[in-house]
Every structure is written in C-alpha cells, then in structure tokens.
Amino acid sequence: MSNLLKKVWESVSNRTNSNKNTPNLSSYSISHAALSDQIMMCSSSTGEFDRIPLDVFMQIVKLLQPNDVARLTAVCKLWRLIVSDNKLWMHYLQNQQVPWETIFFSEVNLRSGFPLQICSQMQSFMNIYGLRTHVPGAIIVDGGSGYCKFGWSKFDSPSGRSATFLFYMYEFGNIETPMYSRLRHFFATIYNRMQVKPSTQSIIVSVPLCQYDDTEAAKAARRQLKEAIHSALFGMNVPSVCAVSQATLALFAAKRTSGIVNIGFHQTSVVPILHGKIMRKVGVEAVGVGALKLTGYLREQMQQRNLHFDSLYTVRSLKENLCYVALDYEAELCKDTEASYEVAAAGWFTLARERFQTGEILFQPRIAGMRAMGLHQAVALCIDHCHAAELTTDESWSKTIVLSGGTACLPGLAERLEKELHGLLSPSVADGIKVLPPPYGADSAWYGAKLISNLSTFPNSWCLTKKEFRSKARSDRRNLV
Fold it and tell me: Alpha helix locations (H) across 262-398?
C-alpha cells in the first residue's frame, strides 16, 4: 500500500507542475459539486491530498490503473467513497476496445439472460468492470445458411470463415439422424482449425432461421435442431453452450432488443422480434430472393454482354464492390453508371446498368423472371401484422428495421427501403420508421454473440451446462406426454 500511495504522490507532483495544461474531463466526468458535498459529510480525510484541487485530484485517480484504484478502497472511508463512484469506472470502461455505448446497452439489457429483463437498478460499475475483466470468453460460431464465421470472442473480428454445409432447410431431426453426425463433424472441423480443445471454452452458436411457421410440427423441428446442436457439443465435452437465433444476435449488434430484422442468403426473411424473442405468431415473412439470386442474376447479365469470367467468385466480387441499390430506379436508367473493378487473378471488369439492376430485383423480382413480392412489400406486411397483433402498447418497437447479412451491405439499400415503406404504409404507421444498415456488415450476428460473451454475467446467465440441458430435455419430454 505504501508503494501505491507513493505512486499517487508522484502523480500529484507531476500533475501540479502542469496544472494549467490539465485536459478537459470527458462527458462522463465526475460531478465535483456532488462529490464535494459527500466529502463534507464524511469525517475521514485523504490526508495531504486534501490540499490538491478536487478536479486535479480526480484526474490523478484516473491516471492510475483500475487495479490500483480498486486497492485504494482499503485506505479509509473517504477513499472508498471516491474510487467507488460510478462515473470513475465508466471512464475506465470507456477506454476499453468495445465502445462504451455498446457496453452500457449490453449490461443494461442483456446481463440477465433470456428472457430479457431491463435492470431497474444498475449495479456498481466498479463491480461490473471487475467482473468483465474476469469473463473467460467463448468460441463463437455464426453458422448461417451460406457462410460460417467463427472465432474467439476476445478478438476484434472472426478469425475464420467457411461454407456452411449442414444447415439445410427442413432437414432437422433427432440425434439418430445424419444431422447429428454432420454437426459433430462440422464443430470438430472448426475446433481443429482454431486449434482449441472443446473442453476448455464455452461456445455461442447462432442458429439460422428455419421452419418459419408457428405450427406444432415447426416447433418440434426447431426444438430437434437445438437439441442436436447441444447434444453434439456436449458429446465433445464442451463445458456450456449458448444457442441463439441468428436474427436475434443481429438485432443485439445494432443495440436493439426489439425490431424487425431482414436477413438471408438463399432467401430473405423478415423477422419481427420483441424483447429478444421471435414473434412467430405475428408471422415471419419470406421472400424468395437472397444473395445467391443476386449473384446469379449478375452472372446472367454478364453472360448477355459476353463478359467472360472463370468462376462465381469473380461475379460475387463484382457484386460486392461495384453493385448498389438506386434510390430512384427509373431516374438511374438515364445516368452514366459505368465503373470498373479489378478482381484478383481475373483482371479488370467494367459494369454499367448491371451495377444497380442487380440489387433492383430485391424490389422488382419480376425483372429476373421471379414471381415473388418485393422486400419492401414483405417488410410493410410484417409491420401491419405487428400493429394488428397489439402485443404491446408501445408500437414503436416495430418501426425499427435492422438490415443484416451480406446482401444488406449493398450501398443505398437502407435509404431505398425506407423510401418505399413511406410510400406503402399509411402516414400514421410510417411515421418514425427507421431502417438501419448492418452495424457490422455481414458479420453482425457474430458481433451480437460477442456482446453476450463479454457480459459481466457470462456464461452463467446465457449458457446451458450438460446437466441443465439433460434436465430441461427430460422436462420437455414430460410436457409432451
């Protein structure tokens, strides 16, 4: 403790010499007036530190490492009062790699686990900081219907990607079916690539949307898929498992717990979510246009122009780097939209109208010869269903549309969808509608899982252990009898 106080006093000496150059406190700085009132009520003293101006004193405390600040609570009652102030620890949390707003959202809305419960009384941020520094982290596997992103939750981004070959629609069953063995092989492959033993870390798995209906058969299929995922992982001795819908995770990444999520690879799904739960009773709308359709349509256009390419990778690269969605399709037809891009090992390619006609099939599928409703029509239908269901007195939850998935990264998509919705819906319903672009691009669901894995209550609040899973499975079977 003497060394710690010496360190503080050295900071005092250096700080007082440059008092005039003291930087401004952050927007979350401690209220010195309020703190002064508390100090006056406290009979303890900080000793020689009483001579230091309070604003300088608080800057000194901030200069110390969080562990050193926590140890200062042992000095006296007044030190405990000062260093336990929430705003001081908010300052330390602000200096983390994760943005402060994201930390605040997750600790307020997600820390209780599912079902979500907003914390009415916020815990001490000093306690939250301490818990977050000891969170073990997790392996994250975002296994969508197109590509799988996996990695360590402490990393800034997924460490690997691979084609997802096991989550085929309507192909779920119990552990006696091939699904179980494919899952075992799939997860074993990921663990081998990451060079991690399954028994060392918890895992968060994003579950792709399947069986959209609210029928008993659809519920059973979804339950069997989750059971197969848990069984496969627990069979590999994973300590605990968290399986959450991919759409829900994408919503969390946008710092929302309620809203409508657009997501899809083989097809586009419009998913209403209230307090983290998919409202299948309201209805999940499906549009038969996804990333694969857009890539295929661009390929057809390139073939019609005799643009030669070696692989679909070339077409996909051009789609991702040159294509966009026009705010006004008819006006865009009159513009010069020609642009070029060099694809590695394939050379330069020049596209013109193909750049915006590719994304236009999301709103006018008939252009590509498909009989389906447009994305804007599906979202408007979902919003109407949400209002008719009257699930809550606050109807604003269904006016936030979060785009997710690789196709949603097309420039101009959010603006075009918002414009179309205002044209389709009545003014009273359309008022306040906001379409948000993917917060983390194609990796939004992965980052939503990252929020959960870094919670101060993880893994206890979100994960199931093998014992808990078996107990829950037995209970579910009894309820079905």
Answer: 291-304, 312-322, 329-332, 354-360, 375-389
How far apart are alpha carbons 361 and 326 in whole angstroms? 11
Burial 397-419 (b: 16+ CB within 10 A, else e): bbbbbbbbbbbbbbebbbebbbe
Q: Which amino acid is at 203?
A: I
Distances (CA, A) of 218 to 76, 212, 221: 61, 7, 5
Q: What is the Cβ-side half-sphere exposure of residue 444, based on CA atoms within 13 angstroms?
A: 31
Sign of the alpha-carbon dihedral angle for 273, 278, 282, 283? positive
What tokens were used for 283?
A: 């209805």
List the beta bridge partners of residue 347. 343
Residue 67, judged by CB atoms within 10 A of its CB (0-12, 13-18, 19+), counts as exposed
Whole-prediction pTM: 0.84
Per-residue pLDDT of the chain (481 residues; tens, 9 = 90+): 556 555 555 554 554 454 444 333 344 344 555 555 555 445 457 776 777 777 777 787 888 888 888 887 777 777 777 778 788 888 888 888 788 899 999 999 999 998 898 766 667 888 888 899 899 999 999 986 678 899 999 999 999 988 764 443 333 334 445 678 888 988 999 999 999 999 999 999 998 887 778 888 888 888 888 999 999 999 999 999 999 999 999 999 999 999 999 877 778 999 999 999 999 999 999 888 988 899 999 999 999 999 999 899 999 999 999 999 999 999 999 999 999 999 998 999 999 999 999 999 999 999 999 998 999 999 999 999 999 999 988 888 999 999 998 889 999 999 999 999 999 999 999 999 999 999 998 899 999 999 999 999 999 999 999 999 999 877 776 665 5
Nearest of 181, 106, 13, 176 to residue 449 by alpha carbon: 106
Whether residue 98 contacts residue 454, with contact meaning beta carbons closer than 8 Å, is answered with yes
Per DSSP bridges, beta strands 240-245 and 259-264 are unpaired
DSSP H or E run through 59: helix 54-63
The shares of helix, strand and coil residues in the chain, as percent rounded to the nearest 5, are 50, 15, 35
380 within 8 A of 262, measured Cβ to Cβ: no
DSSP conformational letter for 480: H
Instruction: Provide the 10 A C-beta neighbour count for residue 11.
Output: 18
Residue 277's nearest CA partner among 248, 315, 249 is 248
CA distance 313 to 6: 62
Residue type, 323: C
